[in-house]
Amino acid sequence: MKIMTDGVRIGPITLNNGITKRNALTFFYASFFTVGIISFMSFMQPYVLTENLNIPADEQGASTSILAFTYELVMLLLIAPFGALADKIGRRPIYCLGFLWVGVSLVIFPLAETMTQLVMGRMFFAVGAAAVTSMMATVLADYPQERSRGFMVAMSGIANGLGAVTLVIGMSQLPALFKSMGYSTLMSGRFTYAIAACLCVVTTIIVFRGLSTLKPSDGKKDKEDIRQLLKEGLQEARKNPRIAVACIEAFIARGDLMVVSVFFSLWANQAGLAQGMDLETAIKTAGSFLIIIQLTSLVWAPIWGIILDRVDRLTAVVIAMFLATIGYLWVGFSPSPIVAAFIPAAIMLGIGEFSAILAGITLVGQEAPKEIRGSVVGLFNFCGSFGILCISLVGGYVYDAWRPGAPFIVVGMINAIILVIALTVRLKVGYRPPVK
């Protein structure tokens, strides 16, 4: 591959040396599909709980909590090692293997007939999800030059949102379509998952052909043990309070995403069923309100990208935590997620969710040393998985015991706490420009 001296440009984004436009476009597609397929899996989960297992609505919060906990337990164990392994063998092979693994798991998951089988299927899916999400974050940190990092993150966020919207819109229509063709509700769901699995195979081919084969390491790390690479990432977080704040922020930012993708889908689906809709119609209605959240993120993305490249990125984390606190508390105290009065809360939620997710990864991308970036980003993702692990345990319990919006209230309160921590550190360490 020809090595560039100044870096090629793709629109307003200047890429690092050795990264081509094809590499960047492939990454944007991979970002599109990574979040899209994970959103699809979470969105369709209530369908399986209702149709395959016949779990009553007042028990689905606890079941969702179990599935989320075991899923994130696997993510917690694997996502940091995947990040460290990427520093040794490169990003592309792990990304490709992850998509193939996800495809196989999508065939297995809807075949479950017991809760135990469903949990095992979700854990199997988590292995592939850990691979693709860790590589998405690592490649995002690799490709842009520092002056373009915020805009690159924003464009990746747009790809994420488009992926979630596209797959939720498209795939939520399929069960009703198959049902109209004469298939049972159970088989309609299984056919929908099978189509998603085929898309994973196509994506694997695209990623294999399009991502860069280069590693950012200069080769000095190749013989180090993976545990040593992870240790270096932790040491860097201890030395740099900005990285430490990014990791703390990841704890709740990934939790934010889980609450929206898992508990919102469950809440909206149950609200539709409570209004007398059949399962296929309830899924479509839930999808329409989830799309409002995601479309808001897309509109907000370029605005947030400009902000990220013009303010201290730790200040951006403070702003993001403030917006997320408002959004999650507003949604949590809303009476229903599928009425017109909910739309303003959904818009604020979309802004807060997007801001929180991108602020942390932009900060850690700026602060992480190039030679151990995979390890630092792996640690960042590890913290995110640990956050989801904790929130999934609490969220399922308060969902059944208190109110469907309770997981959002819990997340909103945690956002407020991290807002105070980030602001305190920002005042202590002082200003740092967004471009080194």
From TrEMBL:
<keyword id="KW-0812">Transmembrane</keyword>
<feature type="transmembrane region" description="Helical">
    <location>
        <begin position="405"/>
        <end position="427"/>
    </location>
</feature>
<feature type="transmembrane region" description="Helical">
    <location>
        <begin position="339"/>
        <end position="364"/>
    </location>
</feature>
<feature type="transmembrane region" description="Helical">
    <location>
        <begin position="124"/>
        <end position="143"/>
    </location>
</feature>
<protein>
    <recommendedName>
        <fullName>Major facilitator superfamily (MFS) profile domain-containing protein</fullName>
    </recommendedName>
</protein>
<feature type="transmembrane region" description="Helical">
    <location>
        <begin position="243"/>
        <end position="268"/>
    </location>
</feature>
<dbReference type="GO" id="GO:0022857">
    <property type="term" value="F:transmembrane transporter activity"/>
</dbReference>
<feature type="transmembrane region" description="Helical">
    <location>
        <begin position="376"/>
        <end position="399"/>
    </location>
</feature>
<dbReference type="InterPro" id="IPR020846">
    <property type="entry name" value="MFS_dom"/>
</dbReference>
<feature type="transmembrane region" description="Helical">
    <location>
        <begin position="93"/>
        <end position="112"/>
    </location>
</feature>
<feature type="transmembrane region" description="Helical">
    <location>
        <begin position="24"/>
        <end position="44"/>
    </location>
</feature>
<keyword id="KW-1133">Transmembrane helix</keyword>
<feature type="transmembrane region" description="Helical">
    <location>
        <begin position="288"/>
        <end position="307"/>
    </location>
</feature>
<feature type="transmembrane region" description="Helical">
    <location>
        <begin position="150"/>
        <end position="171"/>
    </location>
</feature>
<keyword id="KW-0472">Membrane</keyword>
<dbReference type="InterPro" id="IPR036259">
    <property type="entry name" value="MFS_trans_sf"/>
</dbReference>
<feature type="transmembrane region" description="Helical">
    <location>
        <begin position="314"/>
        <end position="333"/>
    </location>
</feature>
<feature type="domain" description="Major facilitator superfamily (MFS) profile">
    <location>
        <begin position="24"/>
        <end position="430"/>
    </location>
</feature>
<feature type="transmembrane region" description="Helical">
    <location>
        <begin position="191"/>
        <end position="211"/>
    </location>
</feature>
<dbReference type="Pfam" id="PF07690">
    <property type="entry name" value="MFS_1"/>
</dbReference>
<dbReference type="InterPro" id="IPR011701">
    <property type="entry name" value="MFS"/>
</dbReference>
<feature type="transmembrane region" description="Helical">
    <location>
        <begin position="64"/>
        <end position="86"/>
    </location>
</feature>
